[in-house]
Amino acid sequence: MTKVFHSSVKLKITVLVWLGSLVVLGAVLSYSYAQTRRIILAEAKEVALNVTAAAANKVEQDFRAVQKVALNLALTLQSCGTDSNELELLTLLRGAVQKNAEVFGAAAAFEPHAFKADLISFAPYYYKTPNGLAYEQLGSQSYNYFQKDWYHVPKILNKPIWAAPYFDEGGGNILMTTYSVPFYKRNEDQSSEERSTENFRGIVTADVSLAWLNQVVESIPVGQTGYCFIISDTGTFVAHKNPKLVMRESVFSVAEERKSQSWRDVGRAMIREAQGFVDLRDELGDAAYLAYARIPSPGWVVGAVFPKSELLFEVVNLHKATVVMAIGGSLLLLLASLLVARSIAAPLRDMAAATDRIASGDLDIDLSDIKSTDEVGQLAQALTHMAAGLKERDFIRDTFGRYLTKEVVNRLLESKDGLRLGGESRDISMIMSDLRGFTAMTSSMKPEQVITFLNRYLAKMVDILIEFRGTIDEIIGDGILAFFGAPEPLDDHPARAVACAIKMQLAMNEINRINESDGLPHLEMGIAVNTGKVVVGNIGSEKRSKYGAVGSQVNFTGRMESFTVGGQILVSKATYDRLADSLVVNKVLQVEMKGVPGLVELYDVRGIKGSYNLQLPDRYTERVPLEEGIAVQIDLLDQKTVSSVEATGRITSVSPTSAVLIMQHQIRQWDDLRLRLIRDVHQHIQGDVYAKAVEVSKTDQGYRVVVRFTSVSPEVYAIFREATMRGSH
């Protein structure tokens, strides 16, 4: 067994060191490969864009030469007017075709009776054949040139155009594209509009053979195995090394056949953009990069395909060589790892046996016989000290409950006295918070939704309490009791408690934003802050205890909290007297509190000055009067449940946070209410409003009750918001 363990330790150390080094080496190689690939690809992109730009420029020059031929012919015919004769015209056309390699054919197609009064159609056409020039008269019953796109479109548009690629059956009988230029009667005084209607004589054309264009494209060098192609302004292939694609397929038909959204996107980009470079499999399915550039004259696009295998050939070879060297280095590293593992296997075996004893509960171990002064020896000493420490802390761990603050944990671990049941009298500040309307909200939620919301809310509140070094006493549902000044003494615990309460209220804005996105009601929280003498310490039994606070001041804080409304912080007089100069107080409330003689002063705090410098936004927005009012049913709540149906009333003014009710039934200040909006006599509007009566007064119309909302359902909140917006206008 010893040999097996010894071997396994050596094996693990060797494997871990070796694999760790391989991971680092692999990361370095991957980074090197990625960087090299990125640099080469950037250079290749620049080269590819330059190649396509040069190709587009070359084709553009050829097209401009063709345009120039047609324009010159049109100007010549226009300058001659009706004086031109057939021989001169044929000589012009023949010369245009013979002298320009780019021009496949040229024609001059006249309007009826425009060339001669007795000729309805006259369109002499010269074009190239393998045997030389050929001549055709296009005006015939089988070839009605007046209906051809190359004739009637420029006539209507009154400007030269490039026709879409087509097969010229009855003319040149090849795939071609045509540049058409309209010409007119000679009259320099007439406007372009007049020329286009009354003086139009015909169309001069210059044709480009797609076969010739394909030869031009094939002559453009694109690496070793790359190639160029041209698509029209509709995406149709007009030149390609694969003749089956020319005039039969388009970028979009290829995309449809391969069900490739990326090819559709590339097709749109090629038609829309002037230049681009994309990583894409070519139309034959091979991995490649595609660069493209626009040919301005016809609006076509030149594409250049660069196979990835060729473009990244150098970086792949470099990577292979690097991998071979890395394998050799890793073998040497493996040998070194074996030697290191052998030197530390024995002391590790002894420490492994010691940890087995600790795991079984035997904490009486001694590893002083390990004399090594390196990290292994230090580990042996640490293990010995750990066993001794565990003996001292075992009973703490057995009785230690879940304390929520780091300070309590540290104190109990540092002293066994911290475990004694009992405590001490301390002057501390307490805060108690509770969500308004939470019980009503959760009644319509799934259990998992309730837990998700509570965890989100409590996580935020606990983070803030820890930030201000508070000790959390209890979390009961949505209620939190925490205090400041114990076990860690804090001289500024009143200010710290108030600042923490303000920060908690500010955090409710973020929580409500998330609530709104989840379709949950807008919730608000009430917080009470009090300062006084309490007893703090471990409360419970030897088996289970908690660090908490007890005393009349804790109970007083709970009663204070019941008077808060949503978004409010009420501070006791004891706390206020210590912070009077630094608190921003909205108003002072005088309330009757159960078990406390006389009126109790509570301070509605909106901010704190000094080092904390925190301020709550003004939540008491102006209420908007409602002309017709909103009928409501008013239910009195007792301990968050409906005790009875009290009365009906009418909302006369409303804001996002409060409303004014007129009702005939008397209620008391601070009563908790549920409001249900009435659509008609027999139907309520979906959704409830929970509120607290903060002011009650008698008027001629009945009792005027100012209520502060604690929870508003999304449906009712939308009605109130619409009413306030309509009323404000």
Automatic annotation (TrEMBL):
It holds the Pfam family MCP-like_PDC_1. Gene3D superfamilies: 6.10.340.10, Nucleotide cyclase (3.30.70.1230), PAS domain (3.30.450.20). InterPro entries: A/G_cyclase, Adenylyl/Guanylyl_Cyclase_3/4, HAMP_dom, Nucleotide_cyclase. GO terms for cellular component: membrane. SMART domains: CYCc (SM00044), HAMP (SM00304). GO terms for molecular function: adenylate cyclase activity. This is HAMP domain-containing protein. Residues 342-395 form the HAMP domain. It comes from the Bacteria. PROSITE patterns: GUANYLATE_CYCLASE_2, HAMP. One of its GO terms (biological process) is intracellular signal transduction.
